[in-house]
Write a structure and sequence with these properties.
TIM Barrel, single chain, alpha/beta, 288 residues, two-stranded antiparallel ribbon, 8-stranded parallel beta sheet
């Protein structure tokens, strides 16, 4: 049995997704184990495999991915590194984006595409059922009933345990809830970019996991300076402080620290051990 020091992710506390999937609140996002532009294989395949194996050793038991990462590369590497999966590991994946080249992400919410995406993810991940399947985007070119009905039916068929959404408003969450229980929302969110506070509050009120991506994003110079100031106070990296703030911001927050480096992974997960002080939170106030 490893100690909390050896498994720092366990110090972030836990969250239960959908009533039956309990995971540590410091998770891993597997987008960065692909090539430049999230396109093609990683520059260092063996390091990508080491990163994935190291996540488990550090106490991470939730990995976020998508069929569009690579495309397909991230899911394939997860299966290569970790299958057969540890009993406690939950893998969440997503569908609903096409890839036409590096950094290109056209939306496709058509039933045909989602059927192919889901079947492909099941095959690549070597699973009979995906524990958390998230719709990557609402598609304004397709009636929402088409993709929401598909997800509901795939869940009824036993191919999906729980369903989540990505980059959505409160209104879109409520629309989806007419078809199925929404157990997670994955929106861009950080100390410097809090435009989704209304969504975070709705998730907190309704026991929905909030999975923030781009945790150091925002482009707000004042926010960047505040993060830097707190990082210096703790002798920590700015990324560690950004993650520690997310953990403090809400009990439904499930940060996914993504990297293609074992060294950076180990650094990032240490954020779970950082407790922000009252002084820190004056510089970096929690969301209202």
């Amino acid at each position: 049995m490893q100690s909390a020091d050896q498994q720092p992710a366990t110090q972030a506390g836990t969250i239960t997704i959908g009533g039956d999937l309990t995971v540590n609140r410091m998770a891993y996002g597997a987008m960065r184990i692909t090539g430049d532009g999230i396109w093609g294989p990683p520059k260092d395949h063996d390091e990508a495999i080491r990163v994935l194996k190291r996540t488990i050793e550090l106490g991470i038991n939730f990995i976020d991915t998508a069929d569009s990462y690579g495309p397909y590369v991230s899911e394939e590497l997860i299966a290569e590194a970790l299958y057969p999966y540890p009993k406690e590991l939950i893998i969440g994946t997503k569908g609903g984006l096409l890839r036409t080249g590096p950094n290109q992400w056209p939306v496709d919410g058509s039933r045909k595409h989602l059927e192919e995406a889901l079947e492909g993810s099941l095959k690549r991940l070597k699973l009979n059922k995906i524990d958390l399947y998230q719709l990557h985007r609402f598609d304004d070119k397709v009636p929402s009933k088409e993709y929401l009905t598909f997800l509901k039916e795939a869940q009824q068929e036993g191919k999906i345990r729980h369903i989540g959404l990505s980059e959505v408003s409160v209104e879109q969450i409520k629309e989806a809830q007419e078809y199925f229980d929404v157990v997670s929302v994955q929106n861009m969110y950080s100390f410097g970019q809090q435009k989704w506070n209304s969504v975070l509050n709705y998730c907190a009120e309704n026991d929905i996991a909030f999975i923030p991506w781009y945790p150091l994003g925002g482009g707000d110079l004042g926010a960047e300076n505040a993060v830097k100031k707190v990082a210096e106070r703790h002798n920590a990296t700015e990324f560690q402080i950004a993650l520690a703030w997310l953990l403090a911001a809400s009990p439904v927050m499930l940060p996914i620290a993504g990297t293609s480096s074992v060294k950076h992974l180990e650094e990032n997960v240490q954020a779970a051990t950082i407790k922000l002080t009252d002084e820190d939170l004056q510089d970096m106030p929690l969301p209202a």
